[in-house]
Design a protein that fits this description.
The longest helix is centred in the first third of the chain and has 19 residues, at about 60-80. This protein has helices spanning about 5-10, 60-80, 95-110, 160-170, 180-190, 195-200, 215-225, 240-245, 250-255, 275-285, and strands spanning about 20-25, 30-35, 40-50, 80-90, 115-125, 130-135, 155, 205-210, 230, 265-270, 290-295, 300-305, 305-310. The strands form 3 sheets. Strands 8-10-7-11-9-12-13 form a 7-stranded mixed beta sheet. A 4-stranded mixed beta sheet has the order 3-6-4-5. It folds into 2 domains: about 5-140, PurM-like, N-terminal domain (60s Ribosomal Protein L30, Chain: A), CATH 3.30.1330; about 155-310, Phosphoribosyl-aminoimidazole Synthetase, Chain A, domain 2 (Alpha-Beta Complex), CATH 3.90.650. By secondary structure, it is an alpha+beta fold. Bound molecules: adenosine-5'-diphosphate and magnesium ion (MG). Adenosine-5'-diphosphate binds near residues 26, 119 and 122.
Length: about 325
């Protein structure tokens, strides 16, 4: 007997939560939630479609993890504390092993960040996972894309490009989903930079998460702030595991155009930026690297040792085919 919709919900998506702001979770017509007074509610949603956002055959543990992770990354980019999530799941057949693993991946990450799954929808159809997350931030401390000013320093966290390398290895069949290779693992299990987002409150002038490639996303941030940006190619952080495996040009391509790392890109006033960056890195527990500066004007220019260098290719656009 295949599982029915209500058994699926009861068995895999109904969990007790210690959160006291969940007055009513899964089971009624809608969730009843008590936002803290004086804070802005922050909301984001993201959909993952099989074959488009994840490869067919991706381990369900990864699909469950990443469906929540990409949403938490959006809250991190706002400087928000996540609180609640909703899950709309379309799946071809209610395979118990798949559901067990998928739910395991999602609940593990939710628990780690104190997020309660409070509702959703379960339907049969192609494999599509939509998660919505809600969180809070003091309204005046929210990080936006639009606050960058000429003269600000541009920073990125961690070492982007690693997940893109993992995706490339999987696509070319050099590695399998079972590989323990850190590049493949990074692609399968994104780490939302929530601690960094909090550390950037009151410090960053603008921020966003890098989901479509550093260069294209810096262009988006610059547009939102109606400024231009200069990217200093020699400053790009290259993970040693990339430097060991690829030449410098390939590494830069992965860093500039690769998606799926979910690092944060942010700007700060240049005055005292180095000291502030050190505090931020300490507080967030992750490295941050200065990679350029904001300038008046528009567009992103790439410099190498002070000389302009044309860089082609951009971020991923779903409708640009
Ligand atoms: P309705 O008919 O009102 O849409 P449903 O039967 O779809 O209600 O859902 C019943 C309850 O289960 C609701 O509280 C809904 O939020 C929750 N729910 C349904 N699917 C999921 C899911 N995949 N994850 C979490 N909660 C879910
Ligand atoms: Mg429903």
């Amino acid at each position: 007997m295949p599982l029915g919709e209500f058994e699926v919900i009861a068995r895999y998506f109904t969990r007790a939560t210690p959160r006291r702001d969940v007055l009513l979770g899964v089971g009624d017509d809608a969730a009843l939630l008590a936002p803290p007074p004086g804070q802005a509610l922050v909301a984001a949603t993201d959909t993952l479609v099989e074959g488009r956002h994840f490869l067919p055959g991706t381990p369900p543990l990864s699909v469950g993890h990443n469906a929540l992770a990409v949403n938490l990354s959006d809250l991190a980019a706002m400087g928000a504390d996540p609180a609640w999530a909703l899950l709309a799941l379309s799946l071809p057949d209610p395979d118990e092993r798949w559901l067990e693993e998928f739910a395991g991946g999602l609940h593990a990450l939710a628990t780690r960040h104190g997020v309660a799954l409070v509702g959703g929808d379960t339907v049969s159809g192609p494999l599509v996972v939509t998660v919505a997350v809600l969180g809070f931030v003091p309204a005046d401390a929210a990080l936006r894309r639009s606050g960058a000013k000429p003269g600000d320093a541009v920073y990125v966290s961690g070492t982007p490009g690693v997940a893109a390398a993992g995706l490339d290895l999987l696509r070319r069949g050099v590695m399998t989903f079972e590989s323990r290779d850190p590049r493949v693992q990074r692609m399968l299990f994104a780490e939302p930079r929530l601690a960094l987002g909090r550390a950037l409150r009151g410090r960053a002038s603008a921020a966003m998460d890098v989901s479509d490639g550093l260069l294209g996303d810096l262009d988006k941030l610059a547009r939102a702030s109606t400024v231009g940006a200069v990217l200093e190619l020699e400053r790009l952080p290259i993970a040693p595991m990339l430097a060991d495996a690829y030449d410098r040009a390939q590494c830069e391509r992965l860093v500039l155009h690769g998606g799926d790392d979910y690092e944060l890109l942010f700007t700060m006033p240049a005055d005292g930026a180095a000291a502030r960056a050190a505090e931020i890195a300490e507080q967030a527990g992750c490295a941050v690297h200065r990679i350029g500066r904001i300038v008046a004007g528009e567009g992103v220019r790439c410099l190498r040792e002070g000389r302009e260098e044309p860089v082609t290719g951009g971020g991923y656009d779903h409708f640009a085919h």
